[in-house]
Write a structure and sequence with these properties.
53% helix, 3-stranded parallel β-sheet, 7 helices, 3 strands, mainly alpha
Length: 156
């Protein structure tokens, strides 16, 4: 790793260590083998600023997940925050256009999902918005439908 400090080498060595040391459960080993049988490992790294997203993109992960700490658990984005999505995407894709850029944090409703996807995010996610909902299954369904609607509306 010291001779070739790449994210891919780090992930491969971490996997080898977890398996050889006995830290990985059989379930985890089964998941690793299933992923490898489909073509290999994917990496996702979180960033909380546009500068962090750029630094992380230089490591060439498969996915950069951008989450502003100020939005985590808060819900809603103003116009400035929605415009930041396009700026982050541009910075990451100038480094490597193959990197998928996801934007999370503040996702509490289907409308939040719609707004983030419509603003240019390739995907999003939510934890507190779903688990704290009165009906988590209904909230998840609402969010899934919002992804489809936003994608359809912006890619016609």
């Amino acid at each position: 790793l010291l001779k070739r400090p790449t994210l891919q080498d780090f992930m491969l060595l971490s996997r080898r260590f977890a398996i050889q040391s006995g830290l990985a459960s059989q379930w985890a080993i089964d998941v690793i083998e299933a992923v490898e049988s489909e073509g290999g490992l994917a990496s996702m790294v979180c960033a909380d600023t546009i500068e962090d997203a750029a630094r992380i993109a230089r490591l060439r992960p498969n996915i950069v997940l951008v989450e502003s700490p100020a939005l985590i658990g808060a819900g809603g984005r103003d116009e400035t925050a929605r415009q930041e999505i396009a700026r982050v995407n541009q910075v990451v894709w100038e480094i490597d256009p193959r990197i998928r850029v996801l934007h999370g944090a503040g996702i509490q409703s289907g409308q939040d999902v719609y707004d983030v996807i419509a603003a240019g995010s390739q995907a999003t996610g939510s934890t507190s918005g779903i688990i704290l909902a009165q009906d988590p299954a209904a909230k998840l369904d609402e969010m899934i439908h919002a992804v489809r609607s936003a994608w359809d509306d912006t890619h016609r």
